[in-house]
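USER:
Try writing one entry.

ASSISTANT:
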Amino acid sequence: MNEPSSGQVAPRAGLRNYLLVTAAYWSDTVTDGALRMLVLFYFYNLGYTPLAVASLFIFYEVFGILTNLFGGYIGARFGLKTTLFIGLGMQLIALSMLAFAPPGALVVGYVMVSQALSGIAKDMTKMSSKSAVKLIVPEEASATLYRWVALLTGSKNALKGVGFFLGGLLLSVLDFQDALKGLAALVGATLLLTAVLMRGGLGQANRKAKFGQMFSRNGAVNKLAAARIFLFGARDVWFVVGLPVFLSSVLGWSFWQSGGFLAVWIIGYGVVQAATPGVLRSRVQEQREPDGRTATILAFVLAALPAAIAVALGAGIAPATVVVAGLILFGAVFALNSAVHSYLILAYTDSDKVAMSVGFYYMANAAGRLIGTVLSGALYQWGLQYGPNQGLIACLWASSVFVLRAGWWSLLLPRHAGPRSKPIKLDDLGD
């Protein structure tokens, strides 16, 4: 039997490592979602105000911005394997800080530091996995890239939903710190298995990469990043603090009920993302992949939904029905929009710059989440002085404004990806 050539071996090795980095990302995603619910409900139950609860996640988002900026540079210069292990290691440290903290140490400042490490971890692993897709799919296979990105993004959000449910359930049946010890054990096992099973690297390190290249000079990437800031700000301005607090305090749901509902929403959101290529497949145009026009239409459709929910709540319609039905519709359209963005960032990017472009793009993603998180707590707390429903209504109007702004930026996006200056080759993947 003839020995396989290096061009034949490299793709198999690259695919093996991609599967490992994706599995590691999934593990980190579940623990990240569970940690979010544990911290949110635990401290709100202690009597923290919505704004104080939101402040616990500020460092998480701030360091997410910095991580995506520096992480793209690290990934380009030292390889995606390095960023993967940094991410898993940071998540293990973050969980251990809370799980093994002495009595009285769980104060705001300490938790914020732990959340900062968790933010670094989540974005390092996310950038590694999503950049790896570009290294596996041949440059000419844009339809395959579209499907793979949608599947990865959708599966990530579905597993984040599992994490939300797990966090709410753990807090209902276990002590806060015992629950965190279980999550730390999961991440530790993932880190060990990935280190043992991964062979070689994931892509090639570029020792000539410069930090200044982190700031994108690609106009399409910059406009997409701006749209991404407002899109994710629109989600988190009511989803992060306002909605969970509303479910527990106004509707009277238990921790596991609130966490379970949010989990089902996130899972459904992930399913829609994974199915986006089929849902949006054009039967009129020759092309089957989305473009800037697709993102624009979805944004303006999405903007009407939080406004409609706010109007219905203000009119006194049954809040449980309005919020549940409205959130389902919002999640479906938001998922389509987000999946289109995730495809476009890779479609607009040269393959030799993928780690940096993805890092820059997710830096914008984290910036939107930071703005949305802070406003979610602040607007909800401000609105409460006018009535129990007014806190969420204030968050919803802000969400609608944010999505309109995302739609405006999407209007400026190219209507096609355009040629790349340096297509990737499968035999460049290394082993």
Notes: The first helix runs from residue 6 to 45. Confidence is low (pLDDT under 50) at residues 1-10, 282-286, 419-431. The two ends are 21 Å apart (CA to CA).
